[in-house]
Every structure is written in C-alpha cells, then in structure tokens.
Amino acid sequence: MGRKADYSEKEKKGPGRKTRKQGPPTFPKKSFAPMDDEDKRLSHRQKQRVAKREQKKVVQKAKLKEKREKQPVQKKQQKYNSESEPEDEEMSEQEEQVSTDEEVPQLVPIKKQLKANGVKNKKEIVAAESESDEEDIEEMEEEATDNEDEEEEDDEDEAQVGKLTDLFEGNSDDEFDVSGEEEADEEDDDESDDDENMPIERASKKLKSRQAKDAELAEEELQMTVDQADIFRFPVEGEEPEKELTLQDVQQRIKDVMQVLSDFNKHREEGRSRAEYTELLRHDLCLYYSYNEFLMEKLMDIFKLSDLMDYLEASEVARPLTIRTNSLKTRRRDLAGALINRGVNLDPLGKWTNVGLVVFNSTVPLGATPEYLAGHYMIQGASSMLPVVALAPQENERILDMCSAPGGKGSHIAAVMKNTGTLFANDANRDRIKAVVANFHRLGIVNAVISCEDATKFRNIMTGFDRVLLDAPCTGTGVVSKDPSVKTTKSEIDVQRCYNLQRKLLLTAIDCVDAKSKTGGYIVYSTCSILPEENEWVIDYALKKRNVKLVPLGIDFGEPGFTKFRQHRYHPSMNLSKRFYPHTSNMDGFYVAKLKKFSNTIPITKEQQEADEKQLDEAIAAEATATEEEAPTAGDETEETKERKLLGKRAGKPNLTDVEQDLKKKKLEQSKTKYVARVFEKPVKVPKKPKPEQPAATEQKQQESGQKKMQNDKKPENTQNYKKQGIVQKRTPKPQNDKKQENGQQKSKEAPQKPAAKTQENGKQNTQKKAKVDVAPSKPKANAKLAKAKRVDVDEVPLLEGKPIKNKSKFNQKSKQVGQLSKSKKPEGKKQKFKK
Amino acid sequence: MKRLSEERTKILFEKLAKYIGTNVQQLIDRPDGTYCFREHRDRIYYVSERILKLSECFGYKQLVCVGTCFGKFSKTDKLKFHITALYYLAPYAQYKVWVKPSFEQQYLYGNHIPKSGLGRITENAGQYQGVVVFSMNDLALGFGVLARSTTECKSADPLSTVCFHQSDIGEYIRAEDTLF
C-alpha cells in the first residue's frame, strides 16, 4: 500500500537554496598581516608542526656549533647577488639591527670593539635564529601547503647565514654594515627562491621594517626613561643651573628622593647622608608646592614621608562644601528636600553628626537661597562642627564661646542647647563681631549675649561657666586649601605670637569654667592649625598650670594627638586629643582637645601666676615690637630712602636695589631672631650686632664704647663682636693695638659698672620705646653732633699712645655719653657712612 | 542696657500692634520667664530677664547685642523695625501675605509686591495694615504694609502694587553693615 503520494504542488517556503548568492570569497587577512599577531590561535596541526620545528632547531643548533668549528668560508659572492632592491635591503638591515637590539641593547657599539670575538658570534646567531623563527611563522601563515622539508631547508639556510656572516666578519676587515647587508641579501635570496617579487610580500616586508623602526624608537625611549629612573644621581651644586629645572624634573626628583629615603641603605649614593637627601627633598617640595622653607620643615617633622605627600596633595584640592542644618528652624531631611528642589545635589555628611550635609554640586548659589536667608542652614566646614560635637553642650547651661566670629560654632552650640540656657559669644574684633550678630539673628538664636571684649581679660568679667569653647586664633596651617597664602607667609615669629596668645587664652578659658558645675566643667580647645606648637604644646602648658585633665572627645575618627614631637615630650594623656588631616578625613586640618577642670584651685601660687602672666605678656609685647620694628629698621641705607620714609613706609621701597633688599632681609631676620622669646625663659634682650658693612673706623669706635658693655654682658651672641674686634685690631698698627687692648681691659675693670648696667636696664624696660627711637628718622640728625665728636676721638687714638689715663678717661666719658643718649650704635654708623 | 522711656515704649507697642495686633500680650506674658524690652544705643532688644541680668557684667561699649534686636529708633524718635524682628513677628502675625514662587526672588531683592506676584492674602485686611510676607511654602520672607485693602486687591490691576516692601530677609546679606 504505502503512503499515498501527495501530488498537490508544494508552496515555496523560502527563496530556495540556489537563490542564495554566494558572497565574494573572503581570505583570512592574517596572512598579510604583520607577524606580531603571533598570539592568534594555532590549529592543532600547526601546533604540532611548530613543536617539531622547535625540536629540529635544537638539533640544528648543536649541528651548527660543530660545523662552525670546521667549515671554511664558502659563499662569498652571495652578498652581491641581489643589490637590485636597495630600499628593501636597507630596511631589512635595520630590522636586523632591531632584532639584535632587543636581545642585547648595546650590541652595535660593542660589535665594533670586539670584531673577532666569539661571544659576538653567538649573539649574532641567536639574532639570526630569532629572525628565522619569525619568518617561519610568517611562512606558515602564508602558505598552508608548505611542507616540513622546505622549512627545514629554510632553517638550514638561515643557520648557515648566521654562521657565514660571522665568519665573514671574523676574517675580513669589513664593517658591520656589510655583514648586515649580506644578511639582508640572504633573506632576499630566500625570497627569490620561493617566488620572486611577489608584491604582497614586498609590502609585508616594508611594513615589517617600518614596525621595526617604530619598535626601535620605542625601545630607545624606554631605555632612556629606565636610565633616568633606576639611578638617582645627587645633583652637584653649581653643575646644573636651577633655572633649567622644569616642574616635571622637580616632581621626578621628589619621587626619586622619596624612593631613596624609603630604603636608604639600599638606594643611597655613597657618601651622601640622609640629611642631604632630606634637604634636597625639602627644597624640591618647597619649589613644587610653593611652601616656604619654614613651614615645609615643620610639615616634614609632623608627617611621615608617605603621609607628607598625601597631605600636600590633599592640601592642593578644595574640601567639599558642607552645610549645617539649623535644628532650631528645620530638620535635616526637610532642608535636604527643599535644597534638592532648588537643584542642589547633597548627601548627609557622616555618622558623627546629624545636622551636617555635604554638597556635591549646586545650580544655585548656596549663600543666597531663601532657605539660607531664612536661617535654615549655615555654610560651615565639616571640621568646625567637631569642636561643638566634642563640647557636647547640654540644655540650660551657661556656655562661653571665646573667639566666636563669624558665629558658626556659636550658633551650633545654641542650636544644640535648643535656645535654652545662655550663650556668651565673644570676639575681640569689632568688625567681625557684626557677622556674629547677623548670623545669630538669621539663625534665630535668642539666648545669646554678644560682646566685644579682649578674651584674655574675660576672667575679670565673668566666671562660672559650665563649658567653654576656645577656638583659638592660629596660623591656619590646616586650611591651606582655603587660604594658600598661609604656605608662604607664616614664619617662626607668627607661630610664636600665636602660641603665646593661645596659652593665655587657654588659661583664661580654664579660669572661666566652674569645676563644681553639675553638668559640665569642660573646656574644648581647637585650632585650625596642625603645628604641635599651637596644639599639644599649649595643652601641655595648661596641664601644668591648672587643675585640668584631658578627656576623650567622643569622636571616633581622627588621629590621636602627639605625646612626643622631636625633642618635646608631652603629657601621656595627650593621645586623647585628636588631630584631623585633609588626607585622612577629608576635612580641613584641625586639632581638638577636651579638658575637664577638676578643681577650682590654681596649683601654682599667686606670685608664680603673676609671673607667668607677665612672662606671656612680655612675650607678646616683644613680638609686637619686633613686628613694629621690622618695617622701619629696614632700608634706611641712603639719604634718599630716608627722605622717602618720611613720606611713608612703602614710598621708597620699589626703588631699592637688590643689594639693599638683601640687607633688608638680613635685618629682618636678625630682628626676628632677636625677639624670639622662649616662653619658659624670660625674653632675652640682645644688644644689636654691629652692622657687617660698617667701615673699620666705625667699628673701632664701637669697640671703644662697646667693649665695656660687652664684657659685662655674657651673652653668647657677643662672641661675634669680639671676633670682629679682633679683626679690626689687626688692621691697626701693632703697638697701639696692644696698648689699646690693655687699656680697654683696664677700663672695664676700673670703670664703675653703672653705665653699662643702666643701658641694659633701659634696654629691657622700654624695648618698645627704644625700637621706635632707633627708627625715628629725625633722631640720626640729632645724633649727628655726637657722632662727629666721637669720630674725632677715634682719629686721635693713635696719639694716645704715649699719653696715659687722662685722655683715656675723657674718652671713656664720652663713650658713656654716647651709650646713654643714643643707646644703639646703628644710627651713628649710618650717619658716618653718609658723610663719607 | 536701659529701660525704654515712657514715650518710646508707647511708640514701640503701637508699632508692634500694627503687625501682630493683640498678640503683643503674648510677648510680654510668657510662660517661660519674664521677657522685657531694653534699649541699647537706640536699638530695641527683646530678651529674657535672666539673660539680661547676666549681660550686666559687660561694659556699655563692650556689649554688642543681647537677645533679639527688634529695631532702631531714629534721632527723631521714629522706630524702624529691622528684619531681625521677624523671628517674633512671623508666628504672631495676624495679617499675612503670600507671594508666588516666581516672585519670591524679586521680593528678596527689595521690591514691592504687585498684584501679579500675590499668591494669597488674609481676608479683611485694611489699607496700610502691617503684614508679614510668606512664600507659598510658609517661609517667612519679610514684612511690609498693604497698599490697598484685601477687597481692593481683588479688583486691582496686575501690575499695581499690593503690598509695600519694608524689610526682607535678603537684608541679612544686603545690609549687614548698616543693620548691626
């Protein structure tokens, strides 16, 4: 039976098999591709073949060695075979070089030196082999039909080539070029053997050679950088002028020195000390990040090297903008919603605060939104919320914010207190206090008393506070990203001025707190500086002077405070205070310490206390004078400048020559060091050094008048003076000199010590006055007479030789006069100079 | 800090009554202690008696501000309220004006409110009635006086002024130097 046939015509379902048109044949492109895509997968067979080839090569190598020892030169003519393709030749030659380069970078120069060397030969062979290898692969890709025999031939050929060239070179006086050429020829020969002048092949050759060129260049470059990187040579002074250094060079050098310092024993250059390296590093960092030497030195003391770089980098970028919700008027969520509606992109700041928001970007100015004006938030750095978090104000307390402008922290305190209790916000600056008033009103704080007092006198006004927040004025070294001028403007004297004031403020703050307060008795000290002088040292001072102890802040991040820094050893509990760095917590550099007052009694006696007070006052006053003096003492070198000075301090400045400016700088430094007052010792008033540029005559005079004085003072600074005297005395005729010295000594013994002592006293008492007196432009004129008279005396000195004590006593008196009236020799010296 | 003279007290309370009417009572009798008005350098401060006592430690010149400043007397004894008074005026205000969001910014730059910027207005407010100005989401923006009564407002020309500007919170920025 079977199936019944279906005769009905079938409908066509598709276009049918034949309708589909075959596309043009596609050849695997890789056959023409440059050979460096070797990483393409090989088929199983290919792999097998490759393995075989490898085996053969090994065998051949062995054979080759044997042959080389025996075989003489056979084919010399081959080199002339195909000079018809000069371009190709050259290129292939280059390629040759490259391939050798890859293995032994310095092959080319070495070759010339060791022409007939066996070592070289070996290298050559290796190179040749590697080339042949490449070629093999190419061939394999090109022609699948290649059989193994052919390849074998090829290999053998090439192996011979290597050997040939070697021999050729070995016995001939030809240069390397020739041998290279020969090799190239060899290759060409191969080509012509296979099929001559296939255009594709030629193209591929060209391409190869071009690539080889590129590779060569890249190699060179790499080599150069490697050369630079791996050996750091310490720059010799005077060898390379500074101006040639680019910023990149400096950066590179910083990295290098960092590396050296990270493993000093390993990377150091022989005979270089660590100090030299750090010195160089500091200099470079100063240059690169534009800090001044002083601050960079401090930073290098504070941070480890790795941290230092992080810190410096972090200080270059601005911190994210943060705002603090005013919890008196709104909630953070509501505020965030309102601001997001205005096109502000923000997020909660952190777990430690429930009022902070960090703003990523904003389409509206955040300082002028209606929410801001209505007092819903305050623009405030994250770091300045920390002290208030640490202070942890309670409701119905009496709290003092000693240095409150512009009122960010103060308003935060009031907000935490929920407008209960009383907040005293004080600031010494009447201009800045306006901002406090404005902010407090805007934020709706009604429990505040805002005053404009000198905070150091606050204990006379009111005490018995439950908590005191002291956000002390500081150098601001932590907020470099906000105010880059800090990098260059701060100096030792600034730091000193700050910490003296800070100590005074902190003692006052402690005195203002009531230790018996039921809820409080806390003082929080904070600065936006990271220098230990302004932080740990100040706290340490307070710990010694008052009955306070450090307590934990209640903030779980930040670095612990230093318990030791260089030669200083601070109280061991100092690690309870916290430091915040831009690179670790992404907020401004900050220091916060919380103190608890446990007794209202002051551990030191009243006299001591007064002495301390006085000491701090004096230090501050001395610094003030120092700064006052800075400007006027500088630059009264010529009468012109003097005249200008009458017009105004800055009038003459632009016209100063370089020399004068240098002098000015020197003086400035001198005046600074002169008034550097250590806090634990009384500020030492150092008599001024005679100016280095003064002529010998003047110095003689000074010597006369000053010797007595100087012998009375035992300060080490005077040794310099003595030295100078010695020099001067050598210039004067000998016999006289001897006598003079004797006389001087006699005098100093004989003469009553009154005048010297007097001057000293004067000097101490009215430092301030004196500075001004020295400086007053009219004074030198008044002194002119005296100076004249004095000079006459000095000129007569040689005549003194025979005449004993009488004249001398006269002289003595006169010098005394001078000492009393002018007190300082400076103006006289100048005057004389002018006259000459 | 000194007590207000009889005359100045009268002026002050009249002025206050313009904005908050009988709610003045609530400023004086508070459950959380006695509050009082004091004068310091011609400025009126409203402060708790407790804080006032503490502030007496400071000298005349050193004391800058206590509590909330309401306004300042001119030399001719005319009282002008500062924007800082808004903190107490806004919650007690009897007559209010709401401005449209589109006009908010304009108002904060010190412009009078035209009819077109008016969002809402309290009923039954008469002409020259002191009002507190709010944004549509009840953010106090300032205060002023009505240029025309509520009923007149309804029929007013869109560009005609409805409320005269007296003070706005933009002054915290614009007039920080003169205000404080």
UniProtKB/TrEMBL annotation, chain A:
Sites binding S-adenosyl-L-methionine sit at C403, S404, A405, P406, G407, G408, K409, D427, D454, D471
Spans of biased composition, class Polar residues? 759-768
Q: Where is the signal peptide?
A: none
Q: What SUPFAM superfamilies does its record include?
A: S-adenosyl-L-methionine-dependent methyltransferases
* MF annotations from Gene Ontology: RNA binding; rRNA (cytosine-C5-)-methyltransferase activity
Instruction: Tell me the active site.
Output: C528 (nucleophile)
Q: Which residues form a coiled coil?
A: none
One biological process term from GO is: rRNA base methylation
Domain SAM-dependent MTase RsmB/NOP-type: start-end pairs: 311-598
Q: Tell me where on the tree of life, at the top rank, the source sits.
A: Eukaryota
Q: Record's PROSITE patterns?
A: NOL1_NOP2_SUN (PS01153), SAM_MT_RSMB_NOP (PS51686)
Which spans does this entry mark as compositional bias, Basic and acidic residues? 1-14, 706-717, 736-752, 825-836
Q: Cellular location of this protein?
A: Nucleus, Nucleolus
A Pfam entry, by short name: Methyltr_RsmB-F
The UniProt regions of compositional bias labelled Low complexity, in chain numbering, are: 776-786
Keywords for this entry? Methyltransferase, Nucleus, Ribosome biogenesis, RNA-binding, S-adenosyl-L-methionine, Transferase
- What family does this chain come from, according to its entry? Belongs to the class I-like SAM-binding methyltransferase superfamily. RsmB/NOP family.
Its recorded name reads: CG8545
Organism annotation: Drosophila busckii (Fruit fly)
Upper taxonomic lineage: Eukaryota, Metazoa, Ecdysozoa, Arthropoda, Hexapoda
From TrEMBL, chain B:
Q: What keywords were assigned to this record?
A: Nucleus, Ribosome biogenesis, RNA-binding
Lineage: superkingdom: Eukaryota
Q: State one molecular function term (GO).
A: RNA binding
Gene3D superfamilies in alphabetical order? 3.10.450.220, PUA domain (2.30.130.10)
Its GO CC terms are: nucleolus
Q: Which GO terms describe its biological process?
A: ribosome assembly
Q: Enumerate the subcellular locations listed in this protein's record, separating them with semicolons.
A: Nucleus, Nucleolus
Supply the PROSITE patterns for this chain: PUA
A single Pfam family it belongs to is: UPF0113
Q: Where is the PUA domain?
A: 95-174
InterPro entries for this protein: NIP7_N, Nip7_N_euk, PUA, PUA-like_sf, PUA_sf, Ribosomal_synth_fac_NIP7, UPF0113_PUA
Magnesium as a keyword of this entry, yes or no, is no
CDD domains the record matches: Nip7_N_euk, PUA_Nip7-like
**Known function:** Required for proper 34S pre-rRNA processing and 60S ribosome subunit assembly.
Q: Which family does it belong to?
A: Belongs to the NIP7 family.
| SUBUNIT field | Interacts with pre-ribosome complex.
Question: Could you tell me which PANTHER family the record lists for this protein?
Answer: CYCLIN-DEPENDENT KINASES REGULATORY SUBUNIT/60S RIBOSOME SUBUNIT BIOGENESIS PROTEIN NIP7
What is the name listed in the Swiss-Prot or TrEMBL entry for this protein? 60S ribosome subunit biogenesis protein NIP7 homolog
